Each structure stands twice: as structure tokens, then as C-alpha cells.
Amino acid sequence: xxxxxxxxxxxxxxxxxxxxxxxxxxxxxxxxxxxxxxxxxxxxxxxxxxxxxxxxxxxxxxxxxxxxxxxxxxxxxxxxxxxxxxxxxxxxxxxxxxxxxxxxxxxxxxxxxxxxxxxxxxxxxxxxxxxxxxxxxxxxxxxxxxxxxxxxxxxxxxxxxxxxxxxxxxxxxxxxxxxxxxxxxxxxxxxxxxxxxxxxxxxxxxxxxxxxxxxxxxxxxxxxxxxxxxxxxxxxxxxxxxxxxxxxxxxxxxxxxxxxxxxxxxxxxxxxxxxxxxxxxxxxxxxxxxxxxxxxxxxxxxxxxxxxxxxxxxxxxxxxxxxxxxxxxxxxxxxxxxxxxxxxxxxxxxxxxxxxxxxxxxxxxxxxxxxxxxxxxxxxxxxxxxxxxxxxxxxxxxxxxxxxxxxxxxxxxxxxxxxxxxxxxxxxxxxxxxxxxxxxxxxxxxxxxxxxxxxxxxxxxxxxxxxxxxxxxxxxxxxxxxxxxxxxxxxxxxxxxxxxxxxxxxxxxxxxxxxxxxxxxxxxxxxxxxxxxxxxxxxxxxxxxxxxxxxxxxxxxxxxxxxxxxxxxxxxxxxxxxxxxx
Amino acid sequence: xxxxxxxxxxxxxxxxxxxxxxxxxxxxxxxxxxxxxxxxxxxxxxxxxxxxxxxxxxxxxxxxxxxxxxxxxxxxxxxxxxxxxxxxxxxxxxxxxxxxxxxxxxxxxxxxxxxxxxxxxxxxxxxxxxxxxxxxxxxxxxxxxxxxxxxxxxxxxxxxxxxxxxxxxxxxxxxxxxxxxxxxxxxxxxxxxxxxxxxxxxxxxxxxxxxxxxxxxxxxxxxxxxxxxxxxxxxxxxxxxxxxxxxxxxxxxxxxxxxxxxxxxxxxxxxxxxxxxxxxxxxxxxxxxxxxxxxxxxxxxxxxxxxxxxx
Lengths: 582, 311
What we know:
- Chain A is an alpha+beta fold.
- Chain A is built from 15 helices and 20 strands.
- Chain A has 2 domains: 62-278, PAS domain (Beta-Lactamase); 375-573, 2-Layer Sandwich (Alpha-Beta Plaits).
- In chain A, strands 13, 14, 15, 16, 17, 18, 19 and 20 form an 8-stranded mixed beta sheet that branches. In chain A, strands 1, 2, 3, 4, 5, 6 and 7 form a 7-stranded antiparallel beta sheet that branches. In chain A, strands 9-8-12-11-10 form a 5-stranded antiparallel beta sheet.
- Chain A starts with a helix and ends in a 9-residue tail after the last strand.
- The relative contact order of chain A is 0.07.
- Chain B is an alpha/beta fold.
- Chain B has a 7-stranded mixed beta sheet, sandwiched between helices. Chain B has a 6-stranded parallel beta sheet with strand order 2-1-3-4-5-11, with helices on both faces.
- The chains are: A alpha+beta, B alpha/beta.
- Chains A and B meet through helix 2 and helix 5 of A and helix 4, strand 11 and helix 12 of B.
């Protein structure tokens, strides 16, 4: 048989578990999830900012280089040109070459746009060369804006150079034009570290590589090879300023990149950091949040399990206990020491169980007694403490025997169903009368019954009671016999009673005890019954004396009864419609 | 186009070092080379082994020695010390990568196709010394403003001597010098040069850029002092040894760079993809003591623009 308790327990446990778990995990997930989301965005913004700052710092370094050269060149355009070039200028120019290793050659132009001086590290110097360079972009540019930057050119197709031209505060001081070797930026650019593995590079305005930690890339001057870098720049330009973009570098790795522009030379300084490293803190934070969520969920599950157990536990104990009590184990006590409603509920169940137990005991006793006592008598007996009332003692009792005349012959002829039916009606009738008179029906035997009055319960005026009872018994059974005599004319009902001392009590073996009486009076009553004819109620002298005039009695001839030496005086109850047979 | 470096069976990769002179003459160059190797992450004896072949000044032995290294199937051949060494290595192998170090223009000499992408199996460093040899005449003019005659020393053997001589002649005209061309291709001819310069009352002796001269700088300094000839060479060794002046590319830079390139090739980069590098530094060394001895004085422009002044 399936255990309904088991499934109920599981479903309640599961319900609680789920509810508790959800109660803890839901806010946890919401909090964790939103934190992760917000955190991600914050980190991303931080990443943008970080890379932007790196780009600016890198561009500042490159700008410093360019401005350094510019500053030094301004020394060359402070004194006005005179007719005579003089050695002073040449010495100054050579000193400048010494001071600025990046400058490969320097040309000085006077107010009229004529080249006065050209010094070079590699080529021959020119003093008072006199060439008219006023139309060159460098000179015109410098005159217009005081500072001019040329495009980046690659000498011999490899080495990057840029021309810088500087003019003074007035035309008379002329213009200084320098060829700057951009390989000198290499030290700056390769020293720039973005995070652990990030680096910076510089593109000129058309998008060619001017500086890169890997100098070979610059010197190869291969536009096709450099395309991914130019593409990075376009991608950065496509987004709003300050936002770092994801792209691929030359090696095909995904990188985050940001850019800063250098004004004047119009170069772009781009910093790039491998995506994995750039997103490192973001991934770490997400991992951390994820792990915390998982740990939190596990903790929530454990907690929910434990709490649900604690909640369901007492219920299970109650359930089991009530089931046991319901099954009849009234001595079972539910033990719950939880100090709350459950404990009180258990207490009530225990009280109920003990009351049930008591009540069960009582009803057991009563049903035991009811077997031979009238219900009222049984109640009475039950009310007195213990079963002592059923103990053996010697008491003056009235014993009444009755049985059916001609029943044996009837039972031999009739069908079993009919016999049992007749007997039932007969016994029902007798029991009603016995109960009505509060006598004790002690025994059934076949068609006969033995009844005691004054035991186990004391009855006032037992003999009178007995004869009244016998009168009513005759009346009821005779009424039944009317119907039955149709089938068996010879059926009859006779009653005999006697009064005297007898030993009463529970008599029999250990396993089979019956409350009955032992004594001469019992025999006498029995014999009187056997002797009685149909409708007769025979009473002995003692009982008759006790009745006195309270009931109509007529003395009959003494009869000789088996077991008695002397003939026994017999009295008969006189019915209204009857004449004494005497 | 260029093949990958051949891999040797033994544990350490091998570099073949082709030297035109001897280990002691090369001492400072070798230390610069090792610095460059270290920059690329290689340490001789620990992560790489080096096979040396020295021509001991016999430049006609270079092709044979180069062939030896090529037959040894080294991972890369380093051929520093001028155009001759590079050309000898080039003749020995077309597959093994070669790193050269020279004063001349590798494109003009036919060693590489272009500076940006050399193509072939050679790449390396140019020290610019050949280009700047005419500037030595300029410097000499500053020290000897009034001299008319100036001697120049040429090494006939050198592949760049013809070009250099042309440049020097152009410069001499511009500077107002009358050139006296002196030749020497072996040590024994050095003394004769100085004697000839002195006897011709030349204002000075300017040496063209040549490795053979450079590796004998101390010798030349001694001779210059002995014969009281104001001389200018390519290498600082000359000035440090007592010579008057020198102007040439910083060879520690160029040799270090050859080491860097050797390391990069060992790592797997192709020589055809490594651009030829030019040094960024050309240095002027002057020796005040030598000037004093010669009864000369340096003009302020030289004093202030010199990279090193030896007193």
C-alpha cells in the first residue's frame, strides 16, 4: 500500500524549500545581476577613460619631442640677417646640430628668401649658397604662420623625415628649415606602455606609420601592410570622441584602441591594448559576481533545506503521532519541544490521546459489563472505581431461569434461518425486559436464559422486581409465541425463580470468565423453570415471602424437584386473564 | 621569397661570424655585437653558439671562409666590417640569411634591392661612413683654413673607393683644395703615404672610409704622430690613439644593430622583410694634445660641435 504520508511530507517540504530558496535567491540574483550590469557599464566607461588618458599621455610625449625641436629652432631666428653671414651664424648652426641629434640638416634663410647657410651631418655644408627658396612651401608656410610642418617623407623609401620651418617675430630674422629624422621618436614610442602589453604608435595625416615600437614596420614603409592600423584610426574616428573601440592589430589580435591628435604636425597617436588585458578587470569583476551568486545560491539552498526541515519536522512528528493515535495506540505521546504552537498542538493531541485512552478503557469495561448487565447497570458499575463490584462474594440474590417449551422439537423441524430468526426475536424481547428492570442477564443457553437480581448491583426489593420482570417477560414472549404457534402449536414459555444466598462473581478459567452465581438457589430456580408449563411463573417460598402481597401469587402443591430431598413449595404468579392450574 | 633559416640538429642555433681581421682588432665591435644579441634575447654559449672565421687582414680569404660557414649550415651568417665581407658572404650562399654591416650604400653596391625591403637573403646596417667621408675634407678645411694642398688616402681594393674618390674630388673643388691622391692597400704601404704627404707639404691627410684602415687606426695614429701629419680618419680609435680627428658613423651602434638583427633572424624573421637600417649617430672626435703637438689649434666651431674632445 503506498505511503500517503511520504508523498505529503515531500510535497510540503518541497513547497517550503522552494519558497524559502526563491525568497533568498530571487533578491540575490536581482541584486547581483543589476550590480553586474551596472558594474560592467561603469568599468567600460572607466576603460574608455583609461585608454583616452593613455592616448593623451602618449601624444604629449610625441608632442614634446616635436615642440622640443621647434623650441630649439627658434634660437636660430632671433638675430636679423645682415649682408655678411659671418662665422657666428655657422657656429650657432653647428651648435644646434650638436644640441638636437634629431636634426639631420639645417638651412637658414634670410629676409629675402635666400638661403644663407646650410649645415648637414651627412652632406656638404653650404655657406652663402644664395639659392632663392622663397617660393618653397617651407618658407612660405613659416612666413605665414611662424611654424610650418611638412609632410612625412621616407628617404630612400625607408627612413621617415619631416621638415620643420620656423620664422622669427619679424621678417628680418628670416626662417630656419630643419630636416628632422623621425627615427629619434622610436625611443619615446617604444617606452610607452599601456597596461602590461599595450603599446602606442603614430600615424601621419594620410595614415602612414611614422613611429612604432617595432621600427622595422616603420622602415618598411609598406602602406598595404599598415592598413589594419589605418583602419583602427578610421574606426576610432567613426565613434564619438573618448570612446575606445575594438579592432584588430597587425597580428590579427583583437585590441581596444583610443586616439589623441597632435595639432601642428597633424599626426594621430593611437594606443592599443589587447582586448583580454583591457577587459581583464571587467572579466574579473563579472567572474567574481558570478561566483558570489553561485556561492550565495548554494548557501540559500542549504539554508532553505535546513529551515524547511525544521519547519516540516514537527509537522511530520505530529502527523505520525496522530496517525498512531488514530490507529488506536492511545498510549502514544507526541514529543515536541519546540516551545511554540507546535508544542502546544502536540500537547493538545496528547491530552486527547489520554482522554481517548481513558474513554476507550471505559467503553471496554462497559462493553465487558454490558454483556451481562443492563446498560444502566453497566453504567453504574462503570462509575464505581475498578471492577471490584464484579468480585466474588456471597449475596442474597434472586435467580430467574426461563426457557421455551417444545423448542427442541421445533428446532428439529424448522430451517436454520427460521430457528435463528426466532431465537433472535426471543432474545431481543428478553433483553429489553431485563434491561427495563435493571436485572443482570448472566447467561444464554439455547432457548434458556439465567438472570440475576441484586447482583452485581444491589437492587431494592429484588423479589418483587423479579416477579414483575417475569410477568413482563411472559407478556412479551407470549405475544411472539402467538405468531410462532401458527407453525408449531406446541411452543411455550415458562419461567422459574428462587431467592436465596449464592456465591456470585467471575467464574471460569483464566481465559474464559463469566459473571454468574453458584448455589442451591440456582439449582432451585433452574428446576422450577423446567417444571413450569407454558405461561407459568413459578416462585419459591423465600421469594414469595419477600414479595408478600405486592403481587398476586397463589400457592401450589409442593413439587418434587430433582436434586431436592423434600418436595419444594411452589408459588405461581397469577395473571389477570388466567386461572390457576393448581 | 627568402627562405627560412635552416635548422641544425643540435640543441643551440649557430651563428657564423665572418671577421675580416682578428679577434683583438674586433674586440670592441664584438662586445657591441653581443650586446645586440642580448637585446634580442640570445646569450653566446647559453642560448646560441657562434662560429668564428677570421681572415686576419687577408681580405682575399674572405670568400673561402664564407664558404666554410655556409657549408657548416649555420642558422645565420654575420658579416660585419665593410662591403667586401658582405659581398664575400653573398657569394657563398643564397639561402642562409646574412647580416652585413658596412659603411657604404648597400643598394648601390648591389647587396640589397632596396632599403625598405631588401629581398634576397641579406639585410643589415649602414654606418653612413662612406657618405660622410667628404665631410672630413670640410673639417680639415676648418682646421687648415689656408692650406691649398690636401692628401687623401684611398684603398684600391675597396669596392667603394671609386665612389668616395669622386665625392672627395667634388668636395675638394668646393672647398678649394688641391687633392693629392695616395694609395695604400696593405699595412706596409702606410708609412710611404705619410712620408709622401709630408714631403708634398700637404696641409693634411684625409682618409677615405675603409675597414682595412679603420682596423689599423692605432698604427695610423702612431705614423701620423711620427711624421707630424695632421690626419683625419673614419674611426674614433684613431683619435683615441693620438690621431688628430675622426668623423664617421658610431660603430658601436652599427655592430650592436647587427647583433639585434642576427637575433631576430634566429627567432624566425625573414631577412627579406627586415629593412636595412642606417645609424642615427655620426660622431666627431678631436684630440687637443695631438693638435698641440702639431702646432695647430681648433676653431671654436669644431670645439663646440665635437662629440668628444680628448685633452
